[in-house]
Amino acid sequence: MWKASTLASDPHGIGHIAGSWLASGSSRKLPAALKITDGLFVRAVDDSGKELSRSLVGEIRVSDRVGSIPRRLTFDDGSVFETTDNDAVDDLLKLHRGSGGGFVHKLERFHPRLIIVVALVVALGFALYRFALPIMVEIAVIATPDVVPELMSEATMESLDQLLFEESNLAPDKRSEILRGFASLATLSPRGAAGYKLHFRGGGAIGPNAFALPDGTLVITDELVELAPDDIDMILGVLAHEIGHVHHDHSLRRLYRAAGVAGLILLIGGDIGAGAEDLLVQGSALLALSYSRAHETEADRYSVELMAKAGRDPEAIARFFELLVEKFGDGGDMDFLSTHPATAARIAEARRYAKEVLGK
Amino acid sequence: MDDAVAGASVSGARPEPRMTREQFTFTGTAREYFGIWIVNILLTIVTLGIYSAWAKVRRKRYFYGNTWIAGSSFEYHARPMTILIGRIIVLAIIIAYNLAVNFLPIVGAIIGVAFLFAVPWFVMRGLRFNARVTSYRNIRFDFVGGYWGAFLAFVLGGALAYATFGILAPIASQWMWSYMLGNLRYGDRTIACDPRLEKLYGQWLLPFVTVVVGSIAMAIIGVGIFFLLASVGMDLEGWMDAGDDAPVVLFLFAIYAAFIPFFLLFAVAGLLYRAGTRNVALNETIIDSRHLMASSIHRGRYAWIAVTNFLATIFTLGLARPWAAIRMAKYLAACTAIHATGSFDEYLGEIADSGAAVGSEFMDVEGLDFGF
Questions:
Q1: CA of B152, closest CA in chain A: separation in Å?
Q2: Per residue in B39-58, is it b (16+ CB within 10 Å) or e — as a string?
Q3: Mind listing the pLDDT tens digit for each residue in B169-184?
Q4: Is residue B271 a contact partner of residue B307, using CB atoms and an 8 Å limit?
Q5: CB contact under 8 A, B37 and A267
Q6: Higher model confidence: residue B303 or residue B5?
Q7: What is the pLDDT of residues B58-101, one digit of tens each?
Q8: CA distance to partner chain A, nearest, from residue B15 (Å)
């Protein structure tokens, strides 16, 4: 550690701060003291009282106070005065500039007040996750212009056609029967029949499946139709479920939510350590799982309502899930099952809701 | 100095340069850092993330400013606005990338490959920025590493380590350390780092054996538990079909729980390896061809501090993090020194700023350090 020797003369008796001085671009450290002259100039002087540097009080650059790390005062000529006497620098600033260590440093000092800061952080963090995040997702969904989901869906459809799908081999009369039924469902949804377009494809590697793209493009594979060849209501129940996903903007919501959670962890995390950060990300992945299950339930209910409105069997979606369980077992490794888990609870809930809707 | 002169007059030969040990020390306290840390979080939330750049500067300044050697501390000079702009750019890239992956899978894959080639550039610029905003005794550091060095060290090295299940990890470590430290400049002085491969393998052995033996032991225990349950006659299938969501959630947690010992095993092995290679790399780092860096981390102690820090952070819901960070910084500083040849203070007084580094950080983009 360096020490500055005390000065022999100090005419004003204030603004006398011990430290060391370094010329611009030099690493040579000289013991020095800081003095204020006429309340106008800040001067760095060496042991013998010789002036090393001077600047106007208003023009010297002072580094912000952080804890008790050394403070740096940079003169006009680029030379630097360094001192660990933070309090003295604060006094000097307060006296000649009217502000000391700054608001942030005052807040940071170890003080019972910090308990309030901790409580605020906990409350705000919770509110952010519980309330602000869903609101931000809603705003993002509303702010997304229609052309964005259209472009995304077009491109997804194109790449899926190139990578996975085959031409549909469905009989033309079966196809038109499904299309007619689908149109009667779509007309009853707020977007109307023009808001949806149904495609038939051979499933290839993904087998029996049905999914919706955010712009209202729906795809159903031959393999799924063949699961229930004589029961048109089951097929329509599945399509009504997919209409529900589009109606509730589920894919956009999921995307924005995932981005929002990742952003929150990265930004607020700051310094929580690598291990704790991994744990948070893993935890939020588990939460996202339950979030997508909530979406599935919502789409199931939509299917029940829409089918009832169309005068068809509202329990069709429940019957379809029972058919899946029967054919593939509970934990089959089909893709459709992993994204649409056909649990007993889900089937029971769909049946219960169908009775409720019919009972109205 | 007087001793050296006296020695020379007695022996009549060239003066034998005296070695002095200059010890790093860290003077931060958990009490002081707690306030800085919690206020950083509060203001980051209140400003919807904008303050995070200022928070980073305050945190870095606190840690640099409390790291001392030979009577002087380090300084961090980055400007928050530069960091904020960097972060906004990185955020935009991440969002665009996620949109692409979700909705344009083919384009996403292409961007993913392009991203792999962009990583070395980001790493290089990040290291340069960090070096240039760091100073010690008024002299800035600089970093002169190029693109291909970073490509070798971080992309190829990483791929090599993964593809060989860690067997070639020391080669990757050698590339990484010599790239990161060997391209560092202090003012107009060069720094050399050439960790020898056989020494890195010496540090690799213990973590590797830990993983192999630990995995075998855990596999045996796992199979044992399975047969135990089977012999007791537990009907796992029937339990799964119980009829509602609870078993599914329980099952997921069971899978996670089964992985926890493995995560811990790999984490501890990783800590042992990191500590060992840091020792090797720093012990073969020479400043300006005359001052030797020295690192003497005790691997077990390092792993202990890291693991207990993590547990303390988790069980206090994050509140012990400032204490943990300070504890680690203190330990690492206490294990690091420079064996200086001749009078270190006099040597330091002669170093000139190279000029290239000063001011140029304003053109650099930072914020690239997160996400990797």
A1: 24
A2: bbbbbbbeeebbbbbbbbbb
A3: 999 999 999 999 999 9
A4: yes
A5: no
A6: B303
A7: 999 999 999 999 999 999 988 888 888 877 877 777 777 767 76
A8: 25
